[in-house]
């Protein structure tokens, strides 16, 4: 290879010296980025204080399990001083790893422990967080490095450890590729046209690139396909082609870095790509002697375990990387020992050392951003927009480059805009590693309340100069605007980057809170219906076991919740259930008026107590009925046998318990004594009757979810796709039916899309969502006047 030998076959010591320092550099960037964000997010006056989270975990989980489920140094001290010190400790350790020396691996271990400690307060769930967790974990097994200015490691790592890093990059690239390209159609060849606008935080170059000819963008997508699908397989052939693949991945990362803000993802991937340049260490791996006498058995066993769990996780994606092992349908597999890989993945997930990768759907999105825009007023007449550092809100909001810094709040806004926050019905299907959030107040609403109270910490969430001399605003609202990029000519003449259109509600107007505010960290009975694994781990799970064994639910319902008085429990049955039963549960017309009457009669504080009581009674009855539901395992899902208790999923079983509660105390007691009676009630269960209590208790939340589910459809379902053949339609229908037998919230989502469409359910302004269609060039464009029929293309 002559003069190219240093490139195609460099020294392993140099490669791994660079990788060790590169991981330290990524940690350094991450801790510097977190340094100014941790306190505003999780400090004592932050949006979601970590001390409150730890207090809730202590309330709900016994020791030592809670320390294993949520490992963090903050258990020792969760003060603001400790929270402030952790990023600085990480900065010092990362700097030590970069400088090098005999303790470089120990410095990376400290970085990993600090990062793990910040997982819960900072919500480290993004792909680059996952990638850094994995790369950082294995950093402790890398060899020592020489002190700067020397760049080399003192030796190459074990070949098995080298392959962990090589395969980590393979999993990331192929994971992103399979999620992006598997299932794509010809009409999705214009994917980049919408993606460059729709991505969470585009840069100016990214938004300008959207204006390139569609043919150029289609070629770009082909290049992305080659780098993400076939080229990663070069990892299995150490040599020149592997080097070419690594260089291609690095080039793609630089292009993505320039056009979109993805934190330190691009930097981390570039560091991993360097591992593909070490062919000698890769070729030295010998599987035949992997567990032979004299081999490093502990490390090899750890590598083998990691590879097993990585292979199991690979079919999933980033969105469900933290929750797939907790899905309730694993509980239906018989015999139970067959689920040992899932149980193992669940047990080790708190270490964050294995993840699934893949984001962005395989279908073209519209070239538009649906932006939640917070507006405030001091006189109830003029509303002014709050401007965020990187999330666009105004027509003049210029896209900015901030990566490798990750502005976490602005990044999260894109998901909140589509309703993919803690209150989302899919909270257990996709989400983060904890059971909290679904039954409480979303963080975005807490932030708005703090704006009104004047207690929002820091100055990084929005431009605080708007408040100068005026104090906290009188009211605030959040509305959904559609931002579409302007043309070249308009951008040059007006300096406006976006065309802004009001398309619907987000959060209705709020004034300074002076009444009851639900706890953002709800008790177990209010967790998502599919959070069964967490529920069983909790203290309340022990009560469910006793109920399943036949104990009286009335004797169990207040245990561990003595703040729910006997009078409140009695009033729940005699007053609230009687009140709810007066309404036709199958028809939600007039539901808002019923909710208002309930609030006027009982008050918010008392209704929250009733919600907890209902949650506890339904969970105890669920535990009593579950053996009937599980009696035939997964066979009902596959259509092989009829289930004993004919409900589709665990989620539906909880809905059935809600349905029975509203039938009254006598009916509830009869079913609790004889679970077989539930079969008749299951035949009467419907989506409206099963969700009726939830709608009474969480009316605004359910309206919000319904609106956002319809907005997701607007963003993903476009006119102009060729109609499916009969065979494709049958296949799609079979897959949907199978999905609904596994994921209960899918049917709930379909139901909610049809609800809260009448004028009585408008809490702020009506929905005015646009429609989109493909044109003849496979671009997704907004339909202004013409609304083509299914299967037609917009000319």
How is this structure best described in words?
This protein is mainly α. The protein folds into 4 domains: 1-157, no CATH class; 161-300 and 315-367, no CATH class; 370-391 and 405-511, no CATH class; 538-697, no CATH class. Helix content is 50%, strand content 5%. The chain has a 4-stranded antiparallel sheet with strand order 2-1-3-4. Strands 5-6 form a two-stranded antiparallel ribbon. Helix 7 packs antiparallel against helix 9. Mean pLDDT is 93; it is low at 785-795.
Number of domains: 4
Question: So what's the overall shape?
Answer: globular
> Helix content range of the residues, please?
40-55%
Number of DSSP helical runs: 35
């Amino acid at each position: 290879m002559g003069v190219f030998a240093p490139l195609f076959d460099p020294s392993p010591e140099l490669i791994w010296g660079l990788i060790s320092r590169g991981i330290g550099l990524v940690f350094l960037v991450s801790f510097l980025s977190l340094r100014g964000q941790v306190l505003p997010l999780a400090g004592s006056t932050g949006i979601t204080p970590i001390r409150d989270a730890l207090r809730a975990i202590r309330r709900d989980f016994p020791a030592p399990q809670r320390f294993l489920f949520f490992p963090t140094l903050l258990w020792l001290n969760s003060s603001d001083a400790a929270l402030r010190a952790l990023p600085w400790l990480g900065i010092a350790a990362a700097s030590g790893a970069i400088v090098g020396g005999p303790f470089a691996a120990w410095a990376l271990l400290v970085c990993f422990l600090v990062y793990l400690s910040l997982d819960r307060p900072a919500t480290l769930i993004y792909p680059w967080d996952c990638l850094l967790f994995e790369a950082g974990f294995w950093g402790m097994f890398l060899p020592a490095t020489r002190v700067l200015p020397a760049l080399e490691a003192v030796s190459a790592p074990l070949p098995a450890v080298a392959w962990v890093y090589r395969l980590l990059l393979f999993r990331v690239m192929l994971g992103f590729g399979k999620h992006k390209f598997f299932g794509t159609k010809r009409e999705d060849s214009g994917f980049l046209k919408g993606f460059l606008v729709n991505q969470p935080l585009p840069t100016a170059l990214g938004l300008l690139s959207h204006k390139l000819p569609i043919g150029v963008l289609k070629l770009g997508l082909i290049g992305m396909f080659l780098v993400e699908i076939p080229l990663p397989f070069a990892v299995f052939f150490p040599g020149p082609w592997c080097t070419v693949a690594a260089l291609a991945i690095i080039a793609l990362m630089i292009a993505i870095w320039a056009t979109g803000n993805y934190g330190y993802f691009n930097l981390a991937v570039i560091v991993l790509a360097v591992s593909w340049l070490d062919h000698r260490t890769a070729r030295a791996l010998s599987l035949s002697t992997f567990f032979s006498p004299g081999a490093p058995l502990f490390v090899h066993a750890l590598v083998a375990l990691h590879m097993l769990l990585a292979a199991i996780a690979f079919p999933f994606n980033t969105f469900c990387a933290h929750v797939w092992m907790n899905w309730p349908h694993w509980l239906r597999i018989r015999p139970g020992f067959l689920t040992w890989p899932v149980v193992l993945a669940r047990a080790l997930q708190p270490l964050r050392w294995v993840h699934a990768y893949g984001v962005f759907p395989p279908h073209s999105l519209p070239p538009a951003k649906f932006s939640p825009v917070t507006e405030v007023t001091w006189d109830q007449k003029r509303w002014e927009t709050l401007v965020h550092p990187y999330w666009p809100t105004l027509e003049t909001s210029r896209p900015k480059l901030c990566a490798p810094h990750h502005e976490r709040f602005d990044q999260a806004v894109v998901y909140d805009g589509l309703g993919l926050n803690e209150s989302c019905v899919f909270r257990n299907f996709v989400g983060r590693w904890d059971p909290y959030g679904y039954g409480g107040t979303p963080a975005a609403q807490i932030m708005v309340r703090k704006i009104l109270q004047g207690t929002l910490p820091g100055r990084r969430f929005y431009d605080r100069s708007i408040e100068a001399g005026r104090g906290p605003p009188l009211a605030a609202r959040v509305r959904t605007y559609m931002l579409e990029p302007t043309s070249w000519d308009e951008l040059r003449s007006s300096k406006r980057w976006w065309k802004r259109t009001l398309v619907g509600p987000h959060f209705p107007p709020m004034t300074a809170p002076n009444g009851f505010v639900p706890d953002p960290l709800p008790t177990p009975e209010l967790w998502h219906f599919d959070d069964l694994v967490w529920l069983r781990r909790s203290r309340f799970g022990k009560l469910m076991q006793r109920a399943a064994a036949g104990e009286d639910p009335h004797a169990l319902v207040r245990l561990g919740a003595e703040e729910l008085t006997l009078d409140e429990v009695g009033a729940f049955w005699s007053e609230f259930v009687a009140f709810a039963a007066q309404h036709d549960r199958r028809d939600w017309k007039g539901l808002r008026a019923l909710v208002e009457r309930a609030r006027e009669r009982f008050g918010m504080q008392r209704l929250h107590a009733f919600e907890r009581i209902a949650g506890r009674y339904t969970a105890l009855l669920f535990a009593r009925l579950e053996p009937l539901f599980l009696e035939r395992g997964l066979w009902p899902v596959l259509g092989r046998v009829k289930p004993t208790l004919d409900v589709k999923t665990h989620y539906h079983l909880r809905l059935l318990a809600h349905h029975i509660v509203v039938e009254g105390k006598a009916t509830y007691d009869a079913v609790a004594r004889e679970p077989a009676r539930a079969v008749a009630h299951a035949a009467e269960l419907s989506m409206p009757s099963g969700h009726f209590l939830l709608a009474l208790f969480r009316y605004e939340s359910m309206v919000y979810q319904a609106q956002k589910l319809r907005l997701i459809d607007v963003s993903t379902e476009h006119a102009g796709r060729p109609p499916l053949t009969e065979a494709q339609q049958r296949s799609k229908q079979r897959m949907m039916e199978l999905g609904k037998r596994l994921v209960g919230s899918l049917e709930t989502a379909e139901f909610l899309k049809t609800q809260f469409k009448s004028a009585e359910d408008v809490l702020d302004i009506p929905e005015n969502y646009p429609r989109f269609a493909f044109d003849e060039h496979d671009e997704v464009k907004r339909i202004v006047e013409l609304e083509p029929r299914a299967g037609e293309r917009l000319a």
